[in-house]
Specification:
This protein has 620 residues and is α/β, with parallel strands linked by helices. It contains 24 helices and 23 strands.
Length: 620
């Protein structure tokens, strides 16, 4: 039979969770498919419907036989009838098992990034999530067995939920990996719940390995949750099974499912499962080929068309796990966007994708912070929808990359009056120099003119004879080097701003006319140095005496050829004048020693009145 998976079937107005979206939006998030289920299942359900009586249902031998047949013929593992227990769903089974086999405050291990509802099943039952993060390298996930054993050996750890195959990354665990999990769990007395709901959606030529099939150790310590629902797109029919080989454990699970009232089938649950597992194989084989082509198309499109995005190669599921960390969105950008304060990078990207293009996908951090920087995309839809989704993804990620791009790659900061409130240290040093030379000391407000300009220019303005200037400079520096420099104080909030600007993607550089050694010492003393790529100040031996010369030196040192790549941030007119000589714009800060009027008259591109306002301007 030829199956038409290209058919577009509208699901709007059908109370579909997935399609409860605005007009024009494309939902590729929750894991159900936009295909009609197998015709054999539809025919069986139609016949059951035509009977017209929908009373209480039992679980017949045909239900057990269908599971046994499917697992033997498809997965090479012979289930036993007595192992199987009907359940209304995999998640109800997991939640019930956690609730009845643990006590509050015990640990349940999960391997993140992993299906987000695992967190709910653990936390809602009073237990603690213990994350054994998977190792990600070269586009592949592997288990961290050293960390896993450390987590399992905790006396408070009593359970592990294994995702096999892995959702969202699509990894099929190998036999030796599963055997190691079973060995460690048995060693430390930990029960394994193996969620194998995605087991039938492997790429052609690849097969999954049932956890309980590996060896006797794995069988005795495990509870396996299986279902036809993900395979045949019948999740709404609430039909699943729990397989428990160990009799003692099985009795406890049977009791758990029955006391939680999730062990009775509805009128269609058995019919659908039997039809799926006895007649649905041809439909599934055709679907797997179609989904494999969807995956191939999507992966090739992303690699070819979307710089910064990397599809993770998968062996199972119809979900595409995409690494978007290369787009350049930082934690600061995710948290700092006005009107879009998101907790994680992937949450920000997913939110913006939906806002900009209408593409609705899952943020990776939903599956644990090990998934931040990733997106999960559902490919179980007609090829035309996949094509539309990829085009929206391309357009949206390009818009986001442009949106979060720093206004200028380089920020040149003045030091005194911009990063640090250094007036008292400098005015005290100037006062000391006048006193030592026996000259009248200018008024306190007049001494602020020493903040910034070269000392050789400042002293003559107050009557110091040319032949005495060098002596005045020497005395000033003697005081300042001894104690004046540490009288500098960073402006409140400046350290946090520098941290956020660095995380945002800016390169921060100090360009000051203060002596170079002093500038470096001040930056290190106040803990600002880690946020800055470079600190350059006045160095007369190298010919750097003025702000303009310092800027010229920095441009050459860092290979900056376009002045539009830089903005100067300073509090005085000479900051703007020095930058303007090189075609560089200046943002004036009036919280320093210059006034708003002076800075505006100096031709600054903007003037901000506070550290917070400076952050808002640069990260808007």
């Amino acid at each position: 039979m030829v199956y038409d998976f290209d058919e577009i079937i509208s699901r709007r107005g059908t109370d579909s969770l997935k399609w409860d979206v605005k007009e024009g939006e494309l939902p590729m998030w929750v894991a159900d498919m936009d295909f009609k289920t197998a015709p054999e299942i539809r025919e069986a359900l139609a016949a059951r419907f035509e009977h017209g009586i929908f009373g209480y249902s039992d679980v017949p031998d045909a239900w057990y036989d269908s599971y046994i047949y499917w697992w033997k013929t498809r997965h090479g593992f012979e289930l036993q009838k007595e192992w199987l227990i009907f359940c209304t769903g995999v998640i109800p089974a997991i939640s019930s098992t956690v609730r009845k086999l643990t006590t509050p405050n015990e640990n349940v291990v999960i391997q993140t990034p992993v299906y987000n509802i695992f967190f709910n099943s653990i936390i809602n039952n009073g237990c603690r999530v213990l994350e054994n993060a998977l190792l990600y390298h070269d586009g592949r996930y592997d288990m961290d067995f050293e960390d896993l054993e450390a987590k399992l050996s905790d006396p408070q750890t009593t359970m592990m939920i294994l995702c096999n195959p892995q959702n969202p990354a699509g990894r099929i665990w190998m036999r030796d990996e599963l055997a190691r999990v079973g060995e460690l769990c048995a060693k430390h007395g930990v029960t394994v719940i193996s969620d194998e709901i995605h087991c039938d959606h492997t790429i052609p030529g690849k097969e999954y390995i049932p956890f309980a099939s590996v060896n006797e150790t794995c069988r005795r310590c495990s509870i396996t949750c299986i279902a036809p629902t993900k395979t045949f797109n019948i999740a709404g029919l609430n039909t699943a099974a729990v397989s428990v080989p160990d009799e003692h454990l099985r009795n406890r699970i049977c009791r758990a499912l029955n006391t939680d009232e999730v062990a009775e089938p509805n009128a269609f649950a058995v019919t659908a499962a039997v039809a799926a597992f006895t007649k649905g194989a041809p439909w599934l084989d055709a679907l797997r080929e179609y989904l494999a082509e969807n995956r191939r198309f999507a992966c090739e499109y992303i690699r070819r068309e979307i710089p910064g995005a990397v599809p993770v190669e998968a062996e199972a599921t119809y979900l595409l796990w995409v690494d978007v960390s290369g787009i350049g969105v930082t934690e600061a950008a995710a948290k700092g966007r006005p009107g879009c304060e998101r907790r994680t990078v992937s949450e920000f990207i997913a939110h913006e994708l939906r806002r900009i293009t209408g593409l609705y996908v899952c943020e990776g951090s939903e599956y644990g912070m090990a998934g931040d920087g990733f997106l999960r995309i559902n490919l179980a839809c007609p090829r035309s929808a996949v094509t539309d989704g990829m085009e929206r993804l391309k357009r949206g990620l390009a818009a986001i990359a442009e949106e979060i791009k720093p206004m200028y790659p380089y920020l040149f900061f003045d030091l005194d009056g911009t990063l640090t409130e250094s007036g008292e240290g400098i005015t005290n040093a100037a006062r000391y120099a006048f006193e030592q030379m026996g000259m009248p000391v200018p008024a306190h407000e007049e001494l602020f003119s020493f903040v910034g300009p070269p000392l050789s220019e400042s002293f003559p303005k107050f009557g110091v004879a040319p032949e005495k200037v060098d002596e005045a400079v020497r005395i000033f520096r003697e005081y300042y080097d001894k104690q004046g420099w540490c009288e500098n104080v960073p402006y409140p909030g400046i350290a946090d701003l520098c941290r956020r600007l660095q995380a945002y993607g800016y390169k921060l550089i100090v360009a000051t006319s203060k002596r170079h050694t002093q500038a470096v010492r001040i930056m290190e003393h106040f803990g600002l140095a880690p946020y800055f790529t470079d600190v350059i100040g006045n160095d007369e031996e190298s010919g750097r005496k003025t702000k303009s010369q310092v800027i010229e030196y920095l441009l050459k040192k860092h290979g900056i050829t376009d002045p539009k790549d830089v903005v100067m941030i300073g509090d005085r007119c000479y900051d703007a004048e020095g930058a303007a000589k090189h075609g560089i714009e200046t943002i004036g800060v009036s919280y320093g020693y210059g006034t708003r009027r002076e800075l505006e008259d100096a031709g600054t591109v903007a003037v901000v009145d506070s550290v917070a306002e400076l952050g808002s301007y640069l990260m808007k």
